[in-house]
Amino acid sequence: MKRIYNLLLSIHSNPFAVKVVVTVIMFAAFSCFIVLLELRAHMTKVLSEPWVSTDVIVDMFSLKLVITTIVLTVIGVFCALIVAHLVTKPIRNLATASRKITEGDLSQRVTTWGEDEIGRLGEAFNQMASSIEKYSQEREALVKELKRNEQIRQELLKKVITAQEDERRRISRELHDETSQSLTSLIIGLKMLEAKVDIDGKQLQEVSALKNLASATLKEVHRLAVELRPSVLDDMGLIPAIERFVSHYIDNYYIDVDFHFLNKTNDRLPEGVETALYRIVQEGLTNIAKYAQAQNVSVLLDIQDEWVKLIVEDDGGGFNVDKIEQSEEAHLGLAGMKERTLLLGGEFTIESSSGQGTAIFVRIPLKRRDIIEITNQITSR
User: Fold this and answer.
1) Which residue, 6, 10, 246, 288, could crosslink 292 as a Cys pair with Cβ 3.0–4.6 Å?
2) How far apart are CA 92 and CA 222, in angstroms?
3) Using CA atoms, how far apart are residues 366 and 80, in angstroms rounded to an integer?
4) DSSP labels, 95-117
5) CATH number of the domain at 230-381, please?
């Protein structure tokens, strides 16, 4: 009974379905009225004309009744299909709107016909779709804002890194050109003073100690100048700079470093790429010396037309990549390498596990015309 009641509500909420049902009922009533008229006519004929065969009259009436029944059945089935189509149309509309919303069209709404369950379901669906569309618009606005803030952050970070490298270059040049020369002059003066024959043994020891201190200070100044910004990186390029750094690294930390360069060419990379790769190698090897307890390190640099790839791998103790944040200094070093890579549109990956060593993979896209332009600029200097 409840299903019949819901069906009647669905029909009542659809004006066109109501018209179809009323038309069917009227047609059925009219057909029954015609059949009754026919029956009355036949009964009258039987009573008024007793010589007419009753079987013939019954057969004719039966034939007309069968034909009428068939016609009413066909019309009823046809009308039932129409009513079923009209009743299920809101459900099909809901299904279609749901599918389109799933595909991303959040503007879809359904038309509600009445106050039955289907109508209330349609209203709930429209409210849900409106809420989803509202939240989606808010989310898109937040995403746009985040992208804009990220773009601003990257631009500021680029400027900070550029300013940092420029300041490193300036200080390194001053240490190399001014401070080193002053210390060199002081050492020469002390050597001349040491060579004088009119000073006693105590004074000679003091002069010799000052000369040794000045020499040690000069070496430290050279080391600081190289760490800040090696002049060989600006003058000769990335490969000689890495080779020199690796050589000093082996002397200082007694770790065997195997540096390979594939597809060697005389072309210079863009300055930003060269600086980033040099700093990544520098930071990577420094972290290995501090934390990895490695004996052997491999550095591979591969330059192709469309990209440059750097791999730094060691045989140290390794670490859990997910827990690297526990060591703030190491995390900052890795974060700095990753930021430099991402700012150039590259990819930065770390593979490591306890006891299995660590490998850092860097891949930076290149435009060949940028390399040619840099090469031409260097050649024209």
Assistant:
1) 288
2) 80
3) 70
4) HHHHHHHHTT-TT------SSSH
5) 3.30.565.10
Rounded-to-integer distance, Cα 242 and Cα 232, Å: 9
Count of CA atoms in the C-beta half-sphere (13 A) of 18: 8
3-state secondary structure of 307: strand
Question: Is residue 113 within 8 Å of 90, Cβ to Cβ?
Answer: yes
Residue 343 near residue 359 (C-beta atoms within 8 A): no
Collapsed DSSP state (helix, strand, coil) of residue 295: coil
First to last CA, the chain: 96
Q: What digits encode the pLDDT tens for the residues 228-242?
A: 888 889 888 899 999
Question: Does the pTM of the predicted model rise above 0.85?
Answer: no
Which of 73, 222, 36 is CA-nearest to residue 214? 222
**Which two structure tokens, joined as six digits, stand for 159?**
């400027």
Q: What are the structure tokens assigned to 244, written together?
A: 């020199």
Asked if 359 and 312 touch (Cβ cutoff 8 Å), the reply is yes
Per residue in 195-208, pLDDT (tens digit) is 775 667 777 788 88
Q: Which two tokens stand for residue 187?
A: 């050492």
Q: How many residues make up the chain in this entry? A: 381
The pair of three-digit structure tokens given for residue 15, joined into one six-digit string: 């004006």
